[in-house]
Amino acid sequence: MKSIIQFLIPSIKGAFKLWLKILRLMIPISIIVKILEMIGLITIFGKLLEPIMIFVGLPGLMGLVWAITIATNLWAGALLFVSLSGLIHVSMAQVTILGILMLMAHGLPIEIRMVQKCGVSAIFALVLRVASAIGLAYAFNHLFSAFKLLQAPATIMLGSSSISENNLFDWVLYQGKSYLFVLMMLLGLVLLLDLLKKYGLVHKLGTILAPYLSLIGVSKKCAPITLVGMTLGLVYGGVLLLKEIEIGELDSDDVLLSITSMNLFHSIIEDTIIIVLMGGSLFWVLPIRFIFTVVVMRFISFLMKDNKEIFYKIMRT
């Protein structure tokens, strides 16, 4: 019993410290985004995105959905989409295109800040996310149009009552619940990671993930953290990566490749489910997104090998 307590106390303390770091990151950004929403700037941003929506084959009104998603999260964008879906008719192809935009670029104020704290330039991370989103959406539109794919009307299975933020009190309550959820998740993740280290399972997990990791250039040391980011989210993966950076166990190349891969491909369970419930195609928003991430990461790994100094300046500027 004593040994269990001795193991748990450092892990709990470590998780709590990480949680405080996340709060210092999330709370100011959440407040700023809420103020921008209240004064109407996000709506204006949505209108500015209308030309991009038309460029990728979507109704201009969907620019507001993407704007909300970029500024806040996928749930907010998805619920706005549900409320707007009665005004326009959208095909499964169009929802899939919107879905890939949302998956590749969402929650950017918080997520880009997390990537920056891990040592990658905010400008590089932002350009990578937005350019990937628009590029994939454009490619999807041409493929779907050329081969007449997914032209049936979208089946929207998502209800509009999942989140209530109709007034300031609802918003504060939701934020508080979110922060507590983050603490619970961190406790579980830190305990799991410490257990893997204690029993020497990090290396075994790295071996299991080796085929994927070799594709993106990430070493076995980053396997558990990269897996956390891929499955649960960039914030969780990023904060664990910060913990390992402080310890000094990771090579700088590993850190850059790991956080960049998580920047492109993360929270694949919850986020993918949201887009499918909106009426998007699972095949196009998950396997194709994965293949795209591998291609981009292979290109980045190649550039880092042959032009390391130049590319480091680009990624870290």
For this entry, give a set of tags:
317 residues; mainly alpha; 77% helix; globular
> How many structurally independent domains?
1
Largest sheet: none
Alpha carbon gap, first and last residue = 49 Å
Total DSSP E strands: 0
H/E element order = HHHHHHHHHHHHHHHHHH
Oligomer status:
single chain
Shape call: globular
Radius of gyration: 20 Å
> β content, as a range?
under 5%
Can you give the helix content as a percent range? over 70%
Description:
This protein has helices at residues 2-38, 41-48, 50-55, 62-71, 74-84, 92-104, 108-117, 122-146, 168-198, 201-208, 210-216, 223-232, 234-247, 252-264, 270-278, 282-285, 287-306, 308-316. By secondary structure, it is mostly helical. The chain has one domain. The model has no long low-confidence stretch (mean pLDDT 85).
